[in-house]
Amino acid sequence: MNLNFLRIAVLTCALSGTSAAGAQDASSSPTGLWLTQKGDARIQVSMCGQGICGKVVWLKDAIDPQTGQPQVDDKNPNPALRSRSMIGVQLFIGMTQNGPGSWTGRIYNADDGGTYDSKVKMVSATQMNVEGCLGAFCGGEIWTKLGGR
């Protein structure tokens, strides 16, 4: 499976000090269509109660080259979910606002089937920092909003 869009490169990013920081634009809305940093997935972010949800709506490599079938969530720890399509998978779990332009919760990483503590922060009207953490080690990437604001 070639789903690098949420690679939690804990050792690489944390040890190298990689951080996607920037001036927060609290007036920006997180809702809309977002392209991952590597450009291999599009995530639809919407409001869910007091928080935000983010689900996969497009994959650059939608077909698994090994099977010739649509990409599935084959790393999921729940065997019953391993055959579900990656399109439609909810990545943000319990993501609630903890300040202007900032949310915390958990994020699902389809690359390894893990769920990690997460922070989502608006960097600008068209950029959002999405971070996943394993303990004190965090890795993040900048997503770009598609179709304007």
List keywords for this structure.
disordered N terminus, mainly beta, 8-stranded antiparallel beta barrel, single chain, 1 helix, 5% helix, Lipocalin, 149 residues, globular
Description:
The chain is mainly β and 149 residues long. The protein has a single domain (4-146), classed as Lipocalin (Beta Barrel), CATH 2.40.128. It contains one helix and eight strands. The chain has one helix at residues 10-16, and strands spanning 32-35, 41-48, 51-59, 92-99, 102-109, 114-124, 127-134, 137-146. Strands 1-2-3-4-5-6-7-8 form an eight-stranded antiparallel barrel. Strand 5 and strand 6 form a beta hairpin. The radius of gyration is 15 Å and the shape is globular.
Task: Give a concise summary.
The chain has one helix at 10-16; strands at residues 32-35, 41-48, 51-59, 92-99, 102-109, 114-124, 127-134, 137-146.
Oligomer: single chain
Poorly predicted tracts of residues: 1-26
- Biggest beta sheet summary: 8 strands, antiparallel, barrel
CATH top level assignment:
Mainly Beta
What form results from the Cα inertia axes? Answer: globular
Q: Which CATH architecture?
A: Beta Barrel
Q: How many angstroms does the end-to-end distance come to?
A: 32 Å
With strands numbered from the N-terminus, the spatial order across the biggest sheet is 1-2-3-4-5-6-7-8
Which structural class should the secondary elements be placed in? mainly beta
Provide the CATH topology: Lipocalin
Number-wise, the strands total 8
What is the ordering of alpha helices and beta strands? HEEEEEEEE
Please give the radius of gyration in angstroms. Answer: 15 Å
Rounded mean pLDDT is 84
What fraction, in percent, of the residue positions are helical? under 10%
Number of domains: 1
